[in-house]
Description:
The complex is a heterodimer.
Chain A: H1 2-5, H2 17-43, E1 52-53, E2 60-67, E3 73-76, E4 88-92, H3 100-103, E5 109-120, E6 123-128, E7 135-141, E8 148-161, H4 162-168, H5 175-186, E9 191-199, E10 202-208, E11 226-236, E12 239-243, E13 249-251
Parallel strand pairs in A: 4-6, 10-12
Antiparallel strand pairs in A: 1-5, 2-3, 2-5, 3-4, 5-6, 5-7, 8-9, 8-11, 9-10, 11-12, 11-13
Chain B: H1 2-10, H2 19-30, H3 32-43, H4 60-81, E1 92-93, H5 94-101
Amino acid sequence: MSEKKAPFFVGYLGVPKALKSFLLKVSLLIFAGFTAGAVLAGATQDDPGQAGFRFDYERQTITAILETKPYPLLYVTESNDRIKAGHTLMLSGQDKTPIMANLASLEANEVKISGVILKRGELDMLQVAGGKRGVEDLKKQSTIPPSEALGKWRLQGEICDGKCLAGAMNPGRGLAHKACANLCLLADIPPVFVSTKPIEGNEYLLVAGPDGGPFPRELYHYVGQFLELEADIEKRGDLLVLIIDPAKIKAVE
Amino acid sequence: MFLTFGIDRIDEDAQGAYVFRLLLIPAILLIWPLVIWRWFILETNRDAWPNRHAPPRHAHFWVAIIFAIAIPAVIIAGLSVRQTWPTSFKPQKLSFLMEQSQ
């Protein structure tokens, strides 16, 4: 008998009087819980900063000398409104499309390359337009500017993929960030070391393997972690290149 | 075999209906061991059908308590072991230090 008199909530009917107070408390508790959860989850994330595709620059066409090791680099030879001669620019394909194979035969050639700029502070990159619009071989062999050795350094920071870092995405933290970065690296996108403090004015360094080639896959597990490492640094144009030493790299506690 | 005569033996609603059996082929290919097992259970009258309508609710209270503790514990543990950005570290030029020490 008492069960029949117990108030019972039905969503499409009015709230029973006896349950109104309980319903209000539960609603407020759930609202407060989710709000607190959202604020706490947000507080654990780093500010990704200002970066992105510079579509406002429109498509840029750059005349430059191409170097393909460790990753495709452009030594800009002719200035335009946005990009000055003497600047060294990293390249990537569309999305996560590899680009190395298309450029391998153009080592030290003068080329005209078109695409969209990505930019985060001093770090920039050119996403090369697809098909024949992207790369034009000027059929002129040239000399790659000599690099300048800056010696061996001890650094702390993080290895990211250069494209997401330059603005294609907002780099986060944790496993998803690491997996995304490694997929980018598999697609020939240059890895970039983000230093805690600038070195010779640069806090972003292109990462090369110990042989001067691409970043080795055996070291991909270090991507997306905070690291301490010792490595040689050299300057190519205005870009710093960090020659990784697998024996001198460890995760920061 | 199951779709031609087996289903008629264990489900009287399927008797005389054929077109729908084509629709079952992909799923039966996927879960065929389960189908064979259920066919065996039903054919041999081992099915305790009332149990299908009596989910094990007695465990729900403790499962809810455990989850309420475990989920925040996992999140707190994850946050406490994650790395912090070494903001104060300044790059050190080692070759310069090595030259000085020699």
